[in-house]
Design a protein that fits this description.
Blueprint (H helix, E strand, L loop, with lengths): L4 H28 L17 H8 L1 H34 L5 H13 L2 H15 L9 H27 L2 H8 L4 H30 L2 H6 L7 H8 L6 H26 L9
Helix pairs in contact: 1-11, 2-11, 3-4, 3-6, 3-8, 3-10, 4-6, 6-8, 7-8, 8-11
Length: 271
């Protein structure tokens, strides 16, 4: 397709405007994390790392960070197991209702978080409550896994469809047992997709606040919930900016890795 100079200019302009709308607010957060003013006066009167020191000394922030890490790792583990199994079932087997499986696996990520949260809260308290269930870290992990499964499922399913079954069939023709074929052929082919899906699942879980609010019990507070609770407290606002700035920087790593790994070449199961 050959575009006119005007069309190319408009496309470049729209890309620049779109990126500016996304990244300028993030840049403001980064600058405010070293802004000496508690009220975030603009332009900053100088640079200070006092807020970073206070953030590292904040016991509430560190506790909520560790809770988010545990919830993210738990949800990612559940998503890797269930999401990859569902992807293998849909990609490698033909059965009645196969398309319905894809629909129902993907549906949770399309539902509003508040709907998912209310449904899980009612299930845990009204149905499972009489059986001894209570809200806690485990319920947060289950709640996050409902939508983390989707990214693992999509990554693994796409990779399985791109690799096909020729290598697995060749392995079977050469006398390899199903377990050997999976270990030596299938797993290397989808390994990077699993890793990319796991990174994205962890990022989704780490960022979640709405479902967490409905599924967390007393004393369970993840980092996003801590940030939201302290955002409008004058004494905590600079620390919140520091935490947000740190998360912005750290978030680039898993997203970049997931993009690199998820978009790799799949010939022979190698990137």
């Amino acid at each position: 397709m050959v575009l006119s100079k005007r069309a190319r200019f408009l496309l470049r302009l729209s890309v620049i405007v779109g990126l500016a709308l996304i990244y300028i607010p993030l840049l403001v957060v980064l600058i405010n994390s070293v802004n000496p003013s508690r009220t975030f006066g603009w332009p900053p009167s100088g640079i200070t790392f006092e807020w970073w020191r206070k953030a590292l000394d904040s016991q509430g922030m560190l506790t909520s960070l560790w809770t988010s890490v545990k919830a993210g790792l738990g949800a990612t583990a559940v998503a890797l197991v269930l999401g990859s199994m569902a992807a293998f079932a849909v990609a490698r087997f033909r059965f009645f209702g196969r398309e319905a499986v894809s629909f129902f696996v993907i549906l949770p990520i399309a539902l509003p978080g508040v709907i998912t949260g209310i449904a899980l809260n009612n299930t845990f308290l009204s149905i499972l409550g009489p059986l001894g269930a209570h809200l806690g870290l485990a319920t947060v992990i289950v709640g996050h896994a409902t939508f983390c499964i989707v990214v693992v499922y999509n990554n693994v399913l796409a990779r399985l469809r791109r690799t096909g079954t020729s290598l697995e069939e060749a392995s079977a023709d050469l006398g390899a047992r199903p377990a050997q074929t999976f270990r030596l052929v299938t797993l290397p082919a989808v390994r990077s997709a699993l890793f990319a899906g796991g990174l994205l699942a962890f990022a989704l879980s780490f960022d979640e606040i709405i479902v967490t609010t409905f599924t967390a019990g007393p004393g369970i507070q993840t980092l996003p919930v801590w940030i939201f609770g302290n955002l409008f407290r004058p004494n905590q606002a600079p620390v919140v900016n520091v935490v947000a700035a740190a998360l912005i920087v750290v978030s680039f790593v898993p997203v970049w890795l997931a993009q690199r790994l998820g978009g790799g070449k799949t010939a022979g199961g190698r990137l």
